[in-house]
Amino acid sequence: MLGTMAQLTDSGIKVYVFTGNHDMWMSGYFEKELGIPVYHHPRTFEWNNRKFFIGHGDGLGPGDHGYKFIKKVFSNRLCRWMFGQLHPTWGMGLANYLSRKSRAKTGNSDEEFFGENEWLIIFCRQVLAKEHFDYFIFGHRHLPIYHKLSETSRYINLGDWIRYFTYATFDGNALVLNKWEE
Question: Is 66's pLDDT higher than 80?
Fold first, then answer.
């Protein structure tokens, strides 16, 4: 994967990486070795007179206070240093335990679309109340979603490459959610 990313950037294609709940501790390598900017928070971009709000999506919107607390702990420099002092067997064991516990709690909820009750849709509407964006693009939910927020604004959740094989393209005019087909 890193070789492919290097080929893309070497050929002049811009690549951007947004960290998510499994990437919080990324720092340095992509920027130094591949020339790829890494964003730890959502960013806004403008292409062809269209405004984009892009991020991973974790920790945005209402609720999930437990995760938001854990995210603050995991991103704290002292906590990261302390975790780094653990033997890898213990550190990975702890990480796997917490991951299994989280997955057991959420079950199959990541496969359901909750309509207007989607927390990222609620978040998008809160942002739209203050500033217009043509597209809000996230990935955290793993579920492919293309949702009309208003006549001129859309929420897109990219899905994933494991179950749905989905991705988005922007042709300069419209953004489309696509499915990879061989």
Answer: no
Say whether pLDDT at 149 is over 90.
yes
Question: Is the pLDDT confidence value at 23 over 80?
Answer: no
N- to C-terminal Cα separation, the chain: 19
Q: How far apart are CA 181 and CA 94, in angstroms?
A: 38
| CA pair distance 170, 31, nearest whole angstrom | 25
Q: Kindly state the tokens that stand for 157.
A: 């959740």
Highest mean pLDDT among 18-22, 43-47, 84-88, 89-93: 43-47
- Please, which residues bridge with residue 143 across strands? none
Beta strand extents in the chain (DSSP E only): 17-18, 38-39, 43-47, 50-54, 135-138, 144-148, 154-158, 166-170, 175-179
The C-alpha atoms of residue 104 and residue 127 are separated, in whole angstroms, by 31
Q: What is the pLDDT of residue 26?
A: 75
CB 134 within 8 A of CB 140: no
C-alpha 171/C-alpha 153 separation (Å) is 16
Cβ proximity of 23 and 40 under 8 Å: no
SS (H, E, C) 131-169: CCCCEEEECCCCCEEEEECCCCCEEEEECCCCCCCEEEE
